[in-house]
Amino acid sequence: MAPRSVIALYPGSFDPITNGHLDLIERGARLCDRLIVAILRNEDKEPLFTVEERIEMLREVVHPYPSVQVDSFNGLLVEYAQEKGACVILRGIRAISDYEYELQMALMNRRLCPAIETVFLMAKEEYSFISSRLVKQVIGLGGNIAGLVPPSVEVRLRHRVLDGR
Ligand code: PNS
To answer: Which residues are catalytic?
Structure first.
């Protein structure tokens, strides 16, 4: 039997991508043959960056990883995963506070599609306090976000939040 290639999905809002997300992408990519980073399109939240801008930012930073692709999706994650032939959903856990939300989503996704497994990776300690929400808050209040997001993302954040571009 030919070996099956493992396609994993890393879904999220990525508004914007942080160094915590990037670390998860790097480590996740080593565990599968293809990793699709998938941005949810139909979000209730008002995003800072459009989906197209987020795709662009993600593509810039995942460029060194040939097995990583960037895409976006609408609707149910498990339906999109099935369309892509993905058997793994990858998510990160930073702290115990993430666990409840992640468990709920993983169990709902399992109920909807038992063939797809959610795999959790623990965030690296140095990134375990970073979230897109806090990064946006800190830069908006004039704080230093160096080292929290990739440099290209920091530039975009400065333009959007401080210069309104
Ligand atoms: O980065 P986020 O905002 O925590 O990501 C949440 C995301 C995109 C993974 C989640 O909202 C999602 O999968 N939405 C798709 C809708 C869906 O499938 N809902 C049912 C299962 S929870």
So the answer is: 21, 45, 94, 132
